[in-house]
Amino acid sequence: MELIETGIDGAWLIKPRVFGDERGFFMESWNARAFAEAGLDFAFVQDNHSRSARGVLRGLHFQSPNPQGKLVRVASGAVFDVIVDVRRSSPSFGKWFGAELSAANKHMLWAPPGMAHGFLCLEDGTDFLYKCTAFYDPASEHSLLWNDPTLGIEWPLDGIEPQLSAKDKAAQPFAEITAFT
Fold it and tell me: Tens digits of per-residue pLDDT, 16-50?
C-alpha cells in the first residue's frame, strides 16, 4: 500500500495494492500486520456501513470523550470525504483535509482519534464503510458545522443544496466545539 500525507498530523490517504484481471479485482482493505509495518498499528472494535443518495452530507461528527479513529472507504459510488483536526495540542489543529474516495479509485482514509469526520455523497447508492477504534457512544457525540466559514472547507456541491440530518443542521461552529486538549 502507499501512504500519502494529508497535512493533518497522524492522518493518511491510503492507496491499497489492487490486483485485477478480466474477472475483476482483489485487494486487502485491512491487514493488521501490513498496516502495523507501515506504522498504523491499531485495533478495531466496530464496523459501520451506510448507504446514501447523491447530495447527502453526513457530518462533521466526532466523539469527546471516547474519540474514535476511523479507517474509511467506499464500496460503491463516491464521496468527498473530509476530516478536521479538533485536537488543540495538535500542530494541525483547525486544519481540514478532503479527498474523493470511490469504488473506482479504491482509496481509503485513516482518520486518527480527535478528528471530526464527514462526507458528501457524489453518486446515488453510495455504500460507505468504516472501521472504528472505539465504540459508538451517543453521550460523547458532537457535530461540527459542515460549512463553518472559519474552516473554509471546499465541498464540491456543484449547485446542490446538501441533504442534512436534523442533528447536522444544529451543529456547532468551530469556535464553540468541545475540542480535545
Answer: 899 989 999 899 899 999 999 999 999 999 999 99
The CATH number linked to 21 is 2.60.120.10
The Cα 86–Cα 69 span in angstroms is 13
Q: Which domain holds residue 138?
A: 2-147+161-176
Closest CA to 104 of 83, 142, 74, 133: 74
| Three cell numbers, residue 9 | 498530523
Q: pTM here?
A: 0.94
Residue 3 Cα distances to 14, 127, 130, angstroms: 5, 23, 18
Q: List the catalytic residue out of 117, 130, 136, 142.
A: 130
Task: Note if 107 is an active site residue.
Answer: no
Within-domain flag for 123: yes
| Catalytic entry in 49, 61, 136, 142 | 61
